[in-house]
Amino acid sequence: MSNFEINIPESTSKFTEKLKGKGKYLLIILIVLFAMPFVRGLLFSWKVIEPGYTGIKINRLVNKGITREDIVTGFIFYNPIQTAIVVYPTFIQRVAWTHDKAEGKPANEELTFNTKDSVPVNIDVAVSYQLESARVPEFYTKFRADNIDSFTHGFLRDTTRNIVANFGSEYNFDDINGAKKEEFLQRVGKALNETVRQFGVNIQQFGLIGSLRPPQTLLDAVNAKTQAIQKSIQVENEVRAAQAEAKKKIAIAEGEAAANRALASSLEPRLLEWERLKIMREQVAKWNGIMPSVMSGSGQGLLMNIPAPAATPQAPAGRK
């Protein structure tokens, strides 16, 4: 059997040997290309800080204070091994602490305090605040929070609860549920702002959601008292209306009596006699000269017919 041989051109053989000699360099290049993304992620990264947010650069390897020079915005590059970027929102934040699980967190977050007259009260509140961008380093140095929610539902909520309890104990329930409610809310908001302002946080608004919630027995008593007050006001209004109507009628009657007295005082005897004669003349003018045929009896109501007088016969002419 004859052997099968393949004749490879000399030029092709030389190219193959050159390729084998450079193969190790090609392999290194491929490894570098595949490793670059990982190396880049470890040694070099970037981040975009959107408008309305402020970031700070934190050096992981050096324990130093954060200064204003560490504030960053926009598009930034950093070494993720050595540097960390913490971003905080600097637009107005709003949080609501209520007993309603549909608002805020799905848990009962209402605030509770006791009034001066020992009435336990539950309230739902809303707080709006804003972080000053220039003081973000101070804020981070104080709280070391990577997320502002930890500050909101931690330090801010505890501070609000303590202030509400302190001021709430200075009022009776009727006052804080009535005329002094606005005063109470303003004092709480002012004290809360003074407490957190030193950390670069400004309270924009503090308000009550809904109404105060005392125990149900006290709430029923308050409603009954309110209804009684409204009923008394209604009765007073009705009394005033009746008095006004009575005064009106008295005034009308007094006016009519005064008019009658004035008329009576103006009628002199001669004037009355003249009026009587005037009436008689009118009756005489209307009489036809015939006596009435029916006259009433005196005392018995008897009616009788009176015949008309017979005509007197006249004598014939010429007789005497």
Helix-strand category: alpha+beta
Q: Which percent bin holds the helix content?
A: 40-55%
**CATH topology annotation of the domain at 90-214:** Tetrahydropterin Synthase, Chain A
Global Rg: 56 Å
Tally of separate helices: 7
Shape: rod-shaped
Pattern of helices and strands: HEEEEEEEEHHHHEHHEE
Largest sheet: 4 strands, antiparallel
The CATH level-2 architecture of the domain at 90-214 is identified as 2-Layer Sandwich
Number of DSSP E strands: 11
**Approximately how much beta-strand content do the residues carry?**
15-25%
Low-confidence stretches: 299-306
Overall description:
The protein has 320 residues and is of the alpha+beta class. Among the domains are: 48-88, no CATH class; 90-214, 2-Layer Sandwich (Tetrahydropterin Synthase, Chain A); 225-273. The chain has helices spanning 10-43, 136-143, 148-168, 173-176, 181-196, 216-265, 269-286, and strands at residues 45-49, 53-59, 71-72, 74-78, 83-89, 93-97, 111-114, 120-131, 201-213, 294-296, 303-305. The strands form 4 sheets. Strands 6, 7, 8 and 9 form a 4-stranded antiparallel sheet that branches. Strands 3-2-5 form a 3-stranded antiparallel sheet, with no helix packed on it. Strands 1-4 form a two-stranded antiparallel ribbon.
Explain briefly what this protein structure is.
The chain is built from 7 helices and 11 strands. It has helices at 10-43, 136-143, 148-168, 173-176, 181-196, 216-265, 269-286; strands at residues 45-49, 53-59, 71-72, 74-78, 83-89, 93-97, 111-114, 120-131, 201-213, 294-296, 303-305.
